[in-house]
Amino acid sequence: MTFETLILEKHDNVGLVRLNRPEAYNALNDQLMDELTAALDALEADDSIGAIVLAGSDKAFAAGADIKMMREWGMMDVFKRQFITANWERASRCRKPVIAAVSGLALGGGCELAMMCDIILAAENARFALPEITLATIPGAGGTQRLTRAVGKSKAMEMILSGRPMFAEEAERCGLVSRIVPLADLVQEAVTLASRVAGFSQPVVALAKECVNRAFESGLSEGVLYERRMAYITFGTEDQSEGLAAFVEKRPPQFIHR
Ligand code: HXC
């Protein structure tokens, strides 16, 4: 598979996708989003891959939706082409865990894309913002919803209404990112984390991911009930039998992803 706006690499059980439009700070145009969708489809279909890393360049994860592209569109254009809905949301629908490795700018749609991922690791130079208000538009790829769930109402309101950026330390403090990593180590650290996750039972990892995501879709008692059902399901997998047996027999488990 060849792409023009991203680079797809396989590192054993990890798929690494690097956004690659250096001339435009990785601004997200239709071609890039179509290619990202195709790359994620391919990685999801590949049984040798257990987790995915999405990265940009040192300078930019992505500077948002491509403004030059959007400038040509009126309301009926975005309505008819189902802008965002058509080709932006694949990352949020991945069954396999997706880790965003964010260095440099994650602006607008770039920040929203990172927030569609399951874990965000940030380099020290990461800068998150939803500056759409400066263009007289608003976040349209989930930013008002996901940022609010991640950091709470007051901070989300401030960022969305004023466009104020958040740097890595603040992003870690308020829970938008899981941790900060030195820039030089970021992608390797994300691949190492992804590889660890990918080494566990893939169906059980998928169940765990579903349960965490359920927390954003349901009330507590419904979410806990969902979790309980999923935990019961793990008792039906060969990997869970193996995991428990390996502990008791004091040996490493051999998961077969069933
Ligand atoms: C298209 C972009 C771009 C973008 C940068 N470029 N961001 N092109 N869309 N989002 C292009 C510039 O036009 C320029 O192209 C080249 O990248 C270099 O950018 P400069 O501005 O010259 O560089 P610099 O001064 O270093 O500033 C970098 C920057 C700034 C901070 C990233 O470009 C910027 O603020 N960009 C816009 C960020 C933004 O507002 N994002 C949110 C978009 S709206 P040329 O051809 O001149 O070299 C969105 C969601 C909308 O994401 C959803 C609506 C439903």
From TrEMBL:
One of its GO terms (biological process) is fatty acid beta-oxidation. InterPro entries: ClpP/crotonase-like_dom_sf, Enoyl-CoA_hyd/isom_CS, Enoyl-CoA_hydra/iso, Enoyl-CoA_hydra_C. Signal peptide: none annotated. It comes from the Bacteria. PROSITE patterns: ENOYL_COA_HYDRATASE. Its EC number is 4.2.1.17. It catalyses: a 4-saturated-(3S)-3-hydroxyacyl-CoA = a (3E)-enoyl-CoA + H2O; a (3S)-3-hydroxyacyl-CoA = a (2E)-enoyl-CoA + H2O. CDD domains: crotonase-like. It holds the Pfam family ECH_1. Keywords: Fatty acid metabolism, Lipid metabolism, Lyase. GO terms for molecular function: 3-hydroxyacyl-CoA dehydratase activity. Belongs to the enoyl-CoA hydratase/isomerase family. Could possibly oxidize fatty acids using specific components. This is enoyl-CoA hydratase. It comes from Pseudomonas nicosulfuronedens.
